[in-house]
Amino acid sequence: MDALVSLIYVSKAAHGLDAADIGAIHHGAQRENASRGVTGALLCYDGRFVQVLEGPAAAVQSVYERILADPRHHDVRLLIQGPTSERLFGQWSMRRVPEPDRRDRTVVAFLDQLQHEPNAMTQAHTALKLLLRLAAAT
Ligand code: FAD
Fold this sequence. Notes:
Layout lengths: L3 E10 L5 H16 L4 E7 L2 E9 H12 L4 E11 L11 E2 L8 H12 L3 H18 L1
Parallel strand pairs: 2-5
Antiparallel strand pairs: 1-3, 1-4, 2-3
């Protein structure tokens, strides 16, 4: 069986992308991922996407390659990709995490890291912490 992997990236939303577009991305992702055994979470905040994908290595790679080619975002930056022993978002084919409060300190730290922290591993750690907390919030 294919090894279980997890992948986190960040990207910038295309100019003019609205709430309906983001809703369509989310619904499409849920449909596609469910048929491939891929789970994860997606946040769109302040014109940026943060996404975690987890599942069998080949399935995650194939979804990620399609995401890379999608014109609805750009500047896709892979933060981390590798084997994992468990799924952190296993109950969601793609959880759309609610937008955080702008005063949320983890969000402020994350946005600050995106601009100033060169270490992708540190960014991935903060991104995951943020997504897990927001995903569990409702
Ligand atoms: P097709 O549906 O055949 O489309 C052909 C091309 O047009 C592709 O490059 C596609 O990206 C692009 N496209 C499709 N719809 C639009 C549109 N409305 N406007 C402009 N271009 C469009 N897919 C998943 O399967 N799982 C995910 O978890 C996932 N997460 C995503 C997260 C983000 C931030 C974004 C932007 C996209 C995500 N997608 C996800 C969608 C993914 O990028 C592909 O669009 C989708 O998988 C369909 O791929 P396809 O090759 O079958 O493209």
